[in-house]
TrEMBL record:
It comes from the Bacteria. InterPro entries: Hypoxan-DNA_Glyclase (IPR026353), Uracil-DNA_glycosylase-like (IPR005122), Uracil-DNA_glycosylase-like_sf (IPR036895). Gene3D superfamilies: Uracil-DNA glycosylase-like domain. It holds the Pfam family UDG. Residues 19-169 form the Uracil-DNA glycosylase-like domain. It comes from Leptothrix cholodnii (strain ATCC 51168 / LMG 8142 / SP-6). This is Uracil-DNA glycosylase-like domain-containing protein.
């Protein structure tokens, strides 16, 4: 008798996420789910050219972030009091879709308050990240769900995403 075949995701390598982007003035921590294939390859958050993350922040702040190199973008992010990280520290996944994530390991979300004394709130970028709201809600800070900047979220126009993000960022003087 042959053994049952292993699920294909079990044969995938365990992927490791990116280090958090933090600064001494971080007031709002933005949490994605897990970096895309393009982001992992570049070792940069939101590196896929169709992801609207950098254009959206640029529109919020009146800065052409897309024209800046990555270290300059991160400097602007830190200067504004924004932190960037992901809910998952690692996972198995074929491709970049959140729906393909398996064997996910959480980042130390509970440790955010100790690491960031000025942290005032958390915001989840999209639905998969927002699945961790039950955890982030226990930190005693406001938690927001923002529409995903992923190219997979085509149902929201850029202007609609921008309005939702502007509303949350304004609450914490990030916009």
């Amino acid at each position: 008798m042959k053994p049952a075949p292993r699920p294909p995701d079990r044969d995938l390598p365990l992927l490791e996420g990116l280090a958090p982007v933090l600064g001494p003035h971080t007031r709002l921590m933005l949490l994605g789910s897990f970096p895309s294939v393009a982001s992992l390859a570049a070792q940069q958050y939101y590196a896929h050219p169709r992801n609207q993350f950098w254009p959206l922040l640029g529109a919020l702040w009146g800065v052409d972030l897309v024209a800046l190199d990555y270290p300059q973008r991160l400097a602007v992010v830190r200067e504004r009091g924004l932190g960037i990280w992901d809910v998952y520290a690692g996972c198995r996944r074929a491709g970049s879709l959140d729906s393909a994530i398996h064997d996910a390991r959480l980042n130390d979300l509970a440790g955010l308050r100790q690491r960031l004394p000025r942290l005032a709130a958390l915001a989840h970028n999209g639905g998969e990240s927002a699945r961790a709201m039950r955890i982030t809600a226990t930190l005693g800070l406001p938690v927001h769900r923002l529409p995903s900047t992923s190219p997979a979220n085509a149902s929201w126009r850029f202007e609609r995403k921008l309005a939702a993000w502007r509303e949350v960022f304004a609450l914490y003087d990030i916009a």
